[in-house]
Amino acid sequence: MLNVQTYGGGLWHTWFDRDLSVAGRVIVRARDGSFLHKLVKVKRPLLRVPTLAIHLNRTVNTDGFKPNLETHLVPLLATKPEEAPAESKEKGTSASKAAHHPLLMQILSDELGCDVDDIVNIELNICDTQPSCLGGANNEFIFSGRLDNLASSYCALRALVDSCGSPGDISSEHAIRMVALFDNEEVGSDSYQGAGAPTMFQAMRRIVGSLANSYAGESAFDRAIRQSFLVSADMAHGVHPNFMDKHEEHHRPEMHKGLVIKHNANQRYATSGVTSFLFKEVAKLHNLPTQEFVVRNDMGCGSTIGPILASGVGIRTVDCGIAQLSMHSVREVCGKEDIDIAYKHFKAFYQTFSSIDRKLIVD
Predict the structure, then answer these.
(1) What is the H or E stretch that residue 216 is in?
(2) Which residues pair with 20 in a beta bridge?
(3) What are the φ/ψ torsions at residue 237 (nearest 5 degrees)?
(4) pLDDT in tens, 195-215
(5) Percentage helix, strand, coil for the chain under 3-state DSSP, each rounded to 5
(6) What is the DSSP letter of 319?
(7) In the record, which residues are listed under signal peptide (predicted)?
(8) What whole-number distance in Å separates Cα of residue 357 and Cα of residue 354?
(9) Cα(160)–Cα(168) distance, rounded to whole angstroms?
């Protein structure tokens, strides 16, 4: 068995009876004594979390499936693990290797093309081996893991690259176009690589400092922040056809209908009347659809990195996302057309926001 730790708020029952494997990073000792940071993904199925047969759990369909995350969510790696080579036993094992089964370490070493003894540390995640695909009668859906939030990340990065394809694309630009991708949003963002870290703030300060040179005063950076605009792009809850009452009656985002702009009076989202107008005006000029989302008053509201960055940096922010179903499942679904719409909306934002923003006069 392979011990695991849950991350964030997953739909853990969806991980049962799936063909699973491992992916992540490994620190490897090189022959010259240096240490290399390598990424690894074992594509073949290595692990499985089997469910208990209905014959041994007769009430599961009436009482619900309620696995204990400590004892029931442990993946099966092998039933007849091979003995570690005698040579390795003679050498002894380091603390890091003692914490992991020799069979797993051997699989990693084969994948990386190194000796087991050269692996000094690992940081791995369990992942589904089934590749993403198109589905539905009209191939209109994307079935995939981790759409939340790789889908928005992809659209934003692709839009940034394509909006700056030639010198002419930015010849009249008065602002800096950038994309910031963070980790650990599902657990609060308070990490070295999360949105709670000063990474983006420091990057913006360095950019302003390198461009302002000696022609601007000390307040140049503060003014740049106040004139900037952040699109906090996460995924959004599309209305579920079997659970439509979980959405506010007049705010039920659908797939294929464009980006969802999120609002919350309690600041769980950072959208304001001004920021939503500016973002929708970009869409309007390019004939792109948008939707609105407000959570029901009798339900809790999730959040994003939008409020974290808006309050931490002091930047105008709009929260938006691509409508999806099965959020936090091992296998999620979104509309194929929405990926194209999101990409076009983000690209249009990069290309036209500066000119739209200059036309807005706020008292």
Answers:
(1) none
(2) 47, 128
(3) -80, 105
(4) 999 998 899 989 988 887 766
(5) 35, 20, 45
(6) E
(7) none
(8) 5
(9) 14
Residue 38 to residue 314: CA distance in whole angstroms: 36
Amino acid at 16: F
Q: How many residues does the chain have?
A: 363
| Inter-axis angle of helices 336-359 and 273-285, nearest 10 | 110
Mean pLDDT of the chain: 91
Containing 155, the helix (H) or strand (E) segment is helix 147-163
Name which of 146, 187, 138 is nearest 6 in CA terms. Answer: 187
Sheet arrangement for strand 119-128: 35-41, 20-29, 119-128
Distances (CA, A) of 246 to 62, 238, 301: 22, 10, 12
Structure tokens at 183: 């980790």
d(C-alpha 315, C-alpha 229), whole Å: 6
Return the DSSP state at 239: P
**What is the SS3 assignment for 25?**
strand
Residue with tokens 């003995």: 83
Query: Prior bond to 297 cis, omega within 30?
Result: no
**Residue burial 105-124, b: 16+ Cβ < 10 Å; e: rest:** bbbbbebbebebebbeebeb
Q: Counting beta carbons within 10 angstroms of the beta carbon of residue 16, is it exposed (0 to 12), middle (13 to 18) or buried (19 or more)?
A: middle
Rounded Cα gap, residues 44 and 128, in angstroms? 10
